Amino acid sequence: MYEFYQLLTIAGVFLYWLIIAGISIRVVAKRRTIGVSLAWLMIIYIVPLGGAFAYLLFGELNLGKKRAVRAELMFKPYGEWFKKLYEYRQYRPHVASLYGQSISAICEKQVGIPALADNHLTLCSETYEILDNLIDDIHQATETILLEFYIWHPGGRADDVAKALIQSAARGVKIRLLLDAAGSRHFFKSQWPKLMKQSGIHVVSALQVSPFRMFFRRLDLRLHRKIVVIDNQIAYTGSMNLVDPEFFNQDAGVGQWIDVMVRITGTSVPVLNSIHAWDWEVETNERFLPEQPKCLSHEDSEITDLVQVIPSGPGMREEVIHRVLLQSIYQAQKSIVITTPYFVPSDNLHMALIIAAQRNVTVDIIVPDKNDSLMVEWASRAFFSELLEAGVNIHRFKGGLLHTKSVVIDSNHCLIGTVNWDMRSLWLNFEVTLAVDNLGFTQKLETVQQDYLKNTVMISPEEWKKRPLASRAAERVFYLFSPLL
């Protein structure tokens, strides 16, 4: 009997070693960034079995077999739809700036979507202005309304949007609403899904969360896009979820969320429509590819507002947003202004910002003074020392949770959309960003950023060095996990 238990112990130790060794080899074989690999190896060795189990659940970009196969099959028809955009007059790469040309070249090779002209962009920076405009456009809809959000939180003006949709559905407008299951959990527990479905609105919960699904799909992959398309003629995208800030997340102690949205008319609206169609098909296996943009003749319109639509996420080509951000920083000659609620950059982005400051580019980063994620807050602080030493200006916004995701380069070009400066947005979530090559729009966004700066406190490098030892220790601990946040 003693020999049996001895053999059982040896077998258990061998099995334990085999599991840890196997998972470690798998981590290394994936050839991701060194920081990500080291963070996972540290978790696996500190909490061996728990770490191995966590890696199997969250360590790899597992969209689920059905969704992955479906996405693979979708590349051809969607690719053919995008190829037709190159035949239109609105595809004019030679009229773009050098910045715009380089960004478009990356996107054309990575996602096959060109930058298109003949758009009209309106920047909306006041929450209730955004909701009022959206409600007005919903009431004017005649054919289709498509919505896609990470969070829909009932209450206040968000309920007015729901009522407007129900009224439009009663007029015969076809409406498809796609919401992230985790982000919009309060919505799905409310009365609105039932009322909407009764009115004929198609309501779909994306990437549902349940203990059973965790063995077949990574649960923390989220639909983080914010897109509205009305009659294939008007679109909205930006940082704002469908919430009334006076009713949303009031217990977090961070103040009201501050956001911007872009209202778009013109050639790029069908492109945003196609992104919604992609997400809808991945989730439901129903195809609703939109009509192509109207091809205007040379006499009908001038070349205006070049816009590059940049989608990213599981099932799409990897790293496109990351590469666009890097290229934008590399090309900056005078200034970079960044607003983001969550600042946990990759090593490459961190170094690119440091080098930009060292070559005398003025770099300003605006982050919230109070964050709704404690882990992100401390991980973010771990990057500040090197940035401050290089001459980067870091500003803490005092007017609420600054949720706007924007980058302005040299006061001439900008990026605006749903992407945070963290690993989750850069590699995991479904996101969308607009690269805008238009001076007038960029100056309006810059004005909004400057208004944010008036309500900030800039971190002093000298004062930062005097922060308590306990804070430094917490920063280093969370820094080790920053590749996984």
TrEMBL record:
<dbReference type="Pfam" id="PF13396">
    <property type="entry name" value="PLDc_N"/>
</dbReference>
<keyword id="KW-0812">Transmembrane</keyword>
<protein>
    <recommendedName>
        <fullName>Cardiolipin synthase A</fullName>
        <ecNumber>2.7.8.-</ecNumber>
    </recommendedName>
</protein>
<dbReference type="Pfam" id="PF13091">
    <property type="entry name" value="PLDc_2"/>
</dbReference>
<feature type="active site">
    <location>
        <position position="403"/>
    </location>
</feature>
<keyword id="KW-0808">Transferase</keyword>
<feature type="active site">
    <location>
        <position position="226"/>
    </location>
</feature>
<dbReference type="GO" id="GO:0032049">
    <property type="term" value="P:cardiolipin biosynthetic process"/>
</dbReference>
<comment type="similarity">
    <text>Belongs to the phospholipase D family. Cardiolipin synthase subfamily. ClsA sub-subfamily.</text>
</comment>
<feature type="active site">
    <location>
        <position position="410"/>
    </location>
</feature>
<feature type="active site">
    <location>
        <position position="231"/>
    </location>
</feature>
<dbReference type="GO" id="GO:0005886">
    <property type="term" value="C:plasma membrane"/>
</dbReference>
<dbReference type="InterPro" id="IPR001736">
    <property type="entry name" value="PLipase_D/transphosphatidylase"/>
</dbReference>
<feature type="transmembrane region" description="Helical">
    <location>
        <begin position="6"/>
        <end position="29"/>
    </location>
</feature>
<keyword id="KW-1003">Cell membrane</keyword>
<feature type="domain" description="PLD phosphodiesterase">
    <location>
        <begin position="398"/>
        <end position="425"/>
    </location>
</feature>
<feature type="active site">
    <location>
        <position position="405"/>
    </location>
</feature>
<dbReference type="InterPro" id="IPR022924">
    <property type="entry name" value="Cardiolipin_synthase"/>
</dbReference>
<dbReference type="GO" id="GO:0008808">
    <property type="term" value="F:cardiolipin synthase activity"/>
</dbReference>
<keyword id="KW-0677">Repeat</keyword>
<keyword id="KW-0594">Phospholipid biosynthesis</keyword>
<keyword id="KW-1133">Transmembrane helix</keyword>
<dbReference type="InterPro" id="IPR027379">
    <property type="entry name" value="CLS_N"/>
</dbReference>
<keyword id="KW-0472">Membrane</keyword>
<dbReference type="InterPro" id="IPR030840">
    <property type="entry name" value="CL_synthase_A"/>
</dbReference>
<keyword id="KW-0443">Lipid metabolism</keyword>
<keyword id="KW-1208">Phospholipid metabolism</keyword>
<feature type="transmembrane region" description="Helical">
    <location>
        <begin position="36"/>
        <end position="58"/>
    </location>
</feature>
<keyword id="KW-0444">Lipid biosynthesis</keyword>
<feature type="domain" description="PLD phosphodiesterase">
    <location>
        <begin position="219"/>
        <end position="246"/>
    </location>
</feature>
<comment type="function">
    <text>Catalyzes the reversible phosphatidyl group transfer from one phosphatidylglycerol molecule to another to form cardiolipin (CL) (diphosphatidylglycerol) and glycerol.</text>
</comment>
<dbReference type="InterPro" id="IPR025202">
    <property type="entry name" value="PLD-like_dom"/>
</dbReference>
<keyword id="KW-0997">Cell inner membrane</keyword>
<feature type="active site">
    <location>
        <position position="224"/>
    </location>
</feature>
